[in-house]
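Record type: monomer structure entry
Structure origin: computed from sequence
Chain ID: A
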Amino acid sequence: MDNKIRRIGILTSGGDAPGMNAAIRAAVRTCVLHNITPIGIRRGYNGLIHSDVVELDARAVNGITARGGTILYTARSEEFRADEGVQRAANNCKYLGIDGVIAIGGDGTFRGARELAKHGINTIGIPGTIDNDIACSHYSIGFDTAANTAIDAIDKLSDTMQSHQRTSVVEIMGRNAGHLAVYVGISVGATAIILPERPFDFERDIVEHIRESQYRGKHHHLIIVAEGTNSTNEIAQRCRDEMGLDTRVTIIGHVQRGGSPSARDRVMATRMGHRAVEEILAGGTNLIVCYRNSQITTLPIDEALSMTKDLDEYMYRVATEITI
């Protein structure tokens, strides 16, 4: 282990995701194990620029694994996007004696970590986003909990759909990625799933699916729409106008980003938080902790950010073939 490491900063940036607290706890406890002082950086990179920090210890993170959100708060920092902001953050790291920074979040968070690394700060990223759109990692913290939250809401919605023989158009979060929508759509047996990664044709993707469903005697229908399509209300209106269906729109929204993390998110976050500290102590920097091929590993940030994550073709085929 590198004995020069005395203090490690931990921050969360961008959108919050269930499981971030478990990653924080693991990082703090691993620091304490190695006689390293963990420093909590509040409100992401903005907190680093303005020295909004707090010294943590093992007791400070008791019980946080079960809590959603992030005890360190999160924010997006316009100031940090400028070279002057990055320089100020790096200077504060040196002034505060922070030898390394663990940054939990998405692509924007990792770009920030890369900039800090250029100024000599050891940085390690941990993927935390419900969208599961981090290309270098097959899984990101928060995805499982968000999916379960949406599934639970839709299961309840299905009861009233069936009672009134209605069609529901449900919008699922995910920004411009459809990974969460596909996963949820398969889980709830959606009639149709509309994604930003696939060209949308109302006749093919909605009408034909509903007609097939009606032919089999089903009179209530569920259409899952990923938010990145920006077409939720349009689809609902066309179902009313062109098909004469009693249609309702449900936007589950930010409730998907909250709540107590699932077991999978707690365990994955704990493993990633532990690995991040070990990487810094071993001299690693400018890396992202990833989950690939059922293993926790790391990739250079530059390489990770150059990757793209396409929709899982097999999952999409299952969604379209099984939900008919």
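Annotation 1: The mean pLDDT is 95.
Annotation 2: The radius of gyration is 22 Å.
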